[in-house]
Structure formats: structure tokens, C-alpha cells
């Protein structure tokens, strides 16, 4: 899942981004509304965690732009105000969910995951294919009943492949969904991660390389 965190309190923004990355999400961070508009014009995000009171361009205007562009991106709006009227206003602007500060990180993570599931074709909460069972919420992976421990990026790549339901996923698509914008697209990070993931999943191999196209399960 690709997430953009937009928050002018840099310590909070960086802390949220670090926590979401530990949950196997690809996260970009910006600290003002103008930078947010620039990023959503370049990258495809599943979810934008958007502070409402932003410098340069207000969070409301960022949200309106996402709606105006007809993007499938879901917006989780943050605010220091917990007034019902503010929540209603934010939802009427086009936000998909609303979370007042301060918040529990576990709740933010759960809301981001719930919104992420709404950006694509509805799938069951636990993904199963080729003897593999993947639970995104619990961060658990089993093959034929045996639990497999995966690093965050390995988990993210496997989740993207499982969600594709047998369709081929290109290396570029994996890079887009599992890594943030600071990753050098000319590295072999995708190939190396897939190789490590194959080894951990065991025999017989379930990740198939489609020459010139990408990977599928």
C-alpha cells in the first residue's frame, strides 16, 4: 500500500511515517499543502493521511483537489479539533474518514488499512492463494499452515502479488506500491526482494517470473 503523510508538525509526520513503514506500507512525507499537491500529481497513492491545518495550501483545498481529479485515493483527515461540526465539514469536503488529535497509532493504522481496502476491488480481509494465507491486519503469513516470518518489504511485495489474484505485476508496479519515492528505481531492489521472498516461502516455488513482464502467484 502506498501512503502519503501530509502534516506540518514534522516530528509527528516522521513518527507516523516510521510506524506505517513498520507495518509494511510505502510512505512518502511532506510538510505543507503545496508539496502535497505536487506529490499527488506525480504518484498514485492508496491513502493520504492529511492534516487539515496546513501552511501554503490548506488541507481542505488539498482534499478538494483530490476529489476534483476523480482519484481513487482515499483521504484520512487529521485535525486538532474534535468538534462534531468540524468532522462533518471535513467529510462533506470529500474526506473518507476523520481522526482527531491526539490519536492512538493503532487506530490510525487500522483506519489507513480499512481505507486502503476501499481503493481496489473488494477482497476478503485474509488473502489466500497457492497454499499461502496472508492477513494484512495481523501481519501474518502462513504456507500450508506453517507461519513464515517476513521483513516489511517482503510482506509488502507478497501482499501486492496476492491482491493481484494471479495477474502479472511488473517490477515498476511493485516499486510503486511497496517502496517510497526515495528508492532509486534503477537498483535491483525488487529482484533481490523477490528472490529472498521466494526462498522464505519454500518449495515448490509459488512466485513465477514472467520474462519481460514481471511476477505473479
Automatic annotation (TrEMBL):
Annotated protein name in UniProt: Transcriptional regulatory protein CutR
UniProt entry keywords in alphabetical sequence: DNA-binding, Phosphoprotein, Transcription, Transcription regulation, Two-component regulatory system
Domain OmpR/PhoB-type: 124-217
Native organism: Streptomyces phyllanthi
PROSITE patterns: OMPR_PHOB, RESPONSE_REGULATORY
Domain Response regulatory stretches: 2-116
InterPro entries for the chain: CheY-like_superfamily, OmpR/PhoB-type_DNA-bd, Sig_transdc_resp-reg_receiver, WalR-like, WH-like_DNA-bd_sf
GO cellular component, one term: protein-DNA complex
An example Gene Ontology biological process: regulation of DNA-templated transcription
Residues modified to 4-aspartylphosphate: 51
Entry annotated with the keyword Phosphoprotein: yes
Gene Ontology MF terms in the entry: phosphorelay response regulator activity; transcription cis-regulatory region binding
Start-end of DNA-binding region: 124-217
Role this protein plays: Member of the two-component regulatory system CutS/CutR, involved in the regulation of copper metabolism. CutR suppresses a defective melC1 gene, encoding a putative copper-transfer gene, probably by altering copper metabolism.
Amino acid at each position: 500500500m502506498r501512503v502519503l503523510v501530509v502534516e506540518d508538525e514534522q516530528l509527528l509526520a516522521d513518527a507516523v511515517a516510521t510506524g506505517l513503514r513498520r507495518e509494511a506500507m510505502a510512505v512518502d512525507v511532506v510538510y505543507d499543502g503545496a508539496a502535497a499537491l505536487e506529490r499527488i500529481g506525480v504518484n498514485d497513492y492508496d491513502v493520504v493521511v492529511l492534516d487539515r491545518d496546513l501552511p501554503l495550501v490548506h488541507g481542505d483545498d488539498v482534499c478538494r483537489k483530490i476529489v476534483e481529479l476523480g482519484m481513487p485515493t482515499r483521504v484520512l483527515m487529521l485535525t486538532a479539533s474534535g468538534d462534531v461540526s468540524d468532522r462533518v465539514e471535513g467529510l462533506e469536503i470529500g474526506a473518507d474518514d476523520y481522526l482527531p488529535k491526539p490519536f492512538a497509532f493503532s487506530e490510525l493504522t487500522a483506519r489507513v488499512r480499512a481505507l486502503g481496502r476501499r481503493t481496489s476491488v473488494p477482497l476478503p480481509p485474509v488473502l489466500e492463494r497457492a497454499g499461502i494465507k496472508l492477513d494484512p491486519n495481523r501481519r501474518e503469513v502462513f504456507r500450508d499452515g506453517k507461519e513464515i516470518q517476513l521483513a516489511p518489504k517482503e510482506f509488502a511485495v507478497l501482499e501486492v502479488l496476492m491482491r493481484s489474484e494471479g495477474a502479472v505485476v511488473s517490477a515498476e508496479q511493485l516499486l510503486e506500491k511497496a517502496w517510497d519515492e526515495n528508492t532509486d528505481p534503477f537498483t535491483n531492489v525488487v529482484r533481490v526482494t523477490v528472490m529472498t521472498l521466494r526462498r522464505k516461502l519454500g518449495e515448490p516455488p509459488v512466485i513465477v517470473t514472467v520474462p519481460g513482464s514481471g511476477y505473479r502467484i
